[in-house]
């Protein structure tokens, strides 16, 4: 049954979903990696395609930007379509000097300044964690793949703000081992915990807060091959 935000019928969405933020990136994953990919939803321009990867059905579907948006789609996928695994494939801003533009980060946990979790479980500082089995498998897959992209595993910071400049916060988070900033992982992990869905974020560093290096808009759409292949292998 279609939902207010997803028009697919039951059975049209696979139980494993690759979830970029950008609809064009979802389309590119479907075109470049999936066989027999079919458009199954396009409500509000959020595209979703179902095809096969090495014989297994996979759906590539966008989430839009930010914690509220990914929470809506991930929740509806879990509750209404029986999705049991969601892997976010997106971009992030490097915070630590240990990472560089085009590196891939397997986000084992996500700090956040969002109040969404505070309202979900009042009075508790909830820990946003990836599914351990997925994170471990992603690291092992990255080691098997090799390649030019450096792979890191560790915590990211999920922020509600894209343009707010907070150097003191960045410095403090980096001092505590945070690798990068993005806008969705913590919300996805909270949905995973609530809905019993395995979740993981595999993100590519598109720009760096310290060095100032940055990808172009076209590169942000296309330079995610390593992250996409890790996610699909899961």
Automatic annotation (TrEMBL):
Catalytic activity: uridine + phosphate = alpha-D-ribose 1-phosphate + uracil
Domain Nucleoside phosphorylase positions: 16-228
Class of the enzyme per the UniProt entry, highest EC level: transferase
Keyword S-adenosyl-L-methionine recorded: no
Pfam families hit by this protein: PNP_UDP_1
Enzyme Commission number, as recorded: 2.4.2.3
Coiled-coil spans in chain: none
Transmembrane parts of this sequence: none
InterPro entries documented for this protein: DeoD-type, Nucleoside_phosphorylase_d, Nucleoside_phosphorylase_sf
Key words of the record: Glycosyltransferase, Transferase
Alphabetical list of SUPFAM superfamilies matching this protein: Purine and uridine phosphorylases
GO molecular function list: purine-nucleoside phosphorylase activity
Protein name: Uridine phosphorylase
Encoding gene (name): deoD
